[in-house]
Write a structure and sequence with these properties.
Belongs to the peptidase C1 family. The chain is an all-alpha fold. Helix content is about 55%, strand content about 0%.
Length: about 220
């Protein structure tokens, strides 16, 4: 009887140890996959649609990573809860978009706690049509025969990394430097990142239409 009890105790101990190791390895796997899961919310596998949404989104976990990664701090618990609800809505939207285009990558960004309306108001800024100056140069109409199916200048090293202008109304300066960076690469073969801040520092106008003259002058000088 005593030997049976000893064997049973040994079996239970081994089972507990095995379970402990399994949970430990699982925790390491989850930690290692944080970056992947936060960037892409739908599995590339053939059974992606069958993945349980609750386990896939795991919103609490991703929101914790999101706050830590982007330094998000909210003034009140009410604001925190509201941003969490917006975050979950954006996760679901990203998942829908991911399923529509499996080749793309949709997931969490620094803007994932903003509603679409808030994002438009804070970062898209300009909401009226601009009038071109009367002396604006018109671009020639180029031939479109024998064009490749697709072409991406990033594959040829002609595009600088993505920049973030924040809430500053300086999109005109980013457009200018982006165009000049590409043109300079075509002319010299060298990709140089230009400074939007230098253009903004030299500008004293508040009217966005005035910026068109800056862009035009830069292109003409080139």
């Amino acid at each position: 009887m005593a030997s049976r009890f000893a064997l049973l105790s040994l079996f239970v101990s081994c089972l507990l140890i095995a379970t402990s190791f399994r949970h430990s390895f699982a925790a390491e796997d989850v930690a290692g996959n944080d970056d992947l899961l936060i960037r892409q919310v739908v599995d590339h596998g053939n059974n992606a649609g069958a993945v349980d949404e609750n386990s896939l989104l795991n919103a609490d976990h991703h929101f914790t990573i999101f706050k830590r990664k982007f330094g998000k701090v909210y003034a009140t618990q009410e604001e925190h809860d509201y941003r969490f609800s917006v975050f979950k809505a954006n996760l679901r939207r990203a998942r829908r978009h991911q399923k529509l285009d499996p080749a793309a990558v949709h997931g969490v960004t620094q803007f994932s706690d903003l509603t679409p309306r808030e994002f438009r108001r804070q970062f898209l800024g300009l909401n009226r049509r601009l009038r071109l100056p009367s002396d604006a140069h018109k671009a020639p109409i180029l031939p479109t025969n024998d064009l490749p199916t697709d072409f991406d200048w990033r594959d040829h090293g002609a595009v600088t990394p993505v920049k973030n202008q924040g809430s500053c109304g300086s999109c005109w300066s980013f457009s200018t430097t982006g165009a000049l960076e590409g043109a300079n690469f075509l002319a010299t073969g060298n990709l140089v990142t230009l400074s939007e801040q230098q253009l903004v520092d030299c500008d004293h106008e508040c009217d966005p239409e005035k910026k068109i003259h800056v862009i035009q002058a830069a292109v003409v000088d080139l």
